[in-house]
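Need tokens for this chain, all 335 residues.
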Amino acid sequence: MEPFVLPEPDRRRPSSLPPGLMTKIVIGLVIVLVLIFGSSTFYTVQEHEKAAILTLGKYTTEKEAGLHFKLPFPIQQVIVLPAKKTQRIQIGFREVGGKITPVEEEAMMITGDENILSADAVVEWNISDMRNYLYNIDNAELFLRNSASAAIRSVIGATALDFAITEGKTEVQGKVKERLIEMQTKYQTGIHIVDLKFQDIEPPAGDVQNAFKDVTNAREEKNTKINIATKYENDILPRERGNAQALLENAEAQKKSRILNAQGDVAKFNALYAEYANNKSVTESRLIIETLEKILPNAKIFISDSTGETVKYLPINELLRTPAAATGTTGGTAK
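Here are the structure tokens for all 335 residues:
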């Protein structure tokens, strides 16, 4: 058996690297390091966002929109959140791709008069305090959903069903919003409640819902008729008040006119009476003559003064017949 002999090592000179390759490798490493450094030190914040800066895991500051610089990881870390964007959560239902799916365990609740009610709501919110939002709550959406459900149930639980589904809907909505804001302030969640709106507040589907719809329709019809009657009243009353005022003003004008006419007649009578008092015989003679003219319209009346002892004679009849006689002489036989 032949002895085992180890092969002799290759004593040839190692092949040298191509010229310039080492330089390229160094440049490539530098570029990679620059890219890694740049990606971990420069960051961009959009208009609807805010950035929280953590230094060695501790919250230090926050940045608004724009391009910013930070120390490389793990010294500093940046958390970008859509703080200025108004977000929405749905209570009692979910809408995905335009399809609405009810969530009965969230929607169903008991009213103050021990009736069952279904309430759907939408909560609009945004981030008001980045630090509280990051450190005081773990799951913001879950916390907000639970707190909104609790606020709705607490208010509905103290409200009668009939009031909640009719004219009290707006009042209930305002109370729920106030309660939800109080909870965010109490727990310092950093969440700002923009608005809360009920989509539907109604009894469960079925005969009860139909009955309440009839009641609601009747109330709306009642309010409509009341509004129509009020409009008619507001139209009629001002016009009739105007007519009444016009009649009063017309009567007042007639009153003043008659008073002035009467005063004028009194003044005229007083003036005549003053003249009558100065010479009563003239008035007496005038009244006698006027009366004779009325009762003897065709009579010829002659007035003479027969006072004194001597009777004065004036041949009036002969004088009156003279023109007639003259006419008869010239024109024919006188009768």
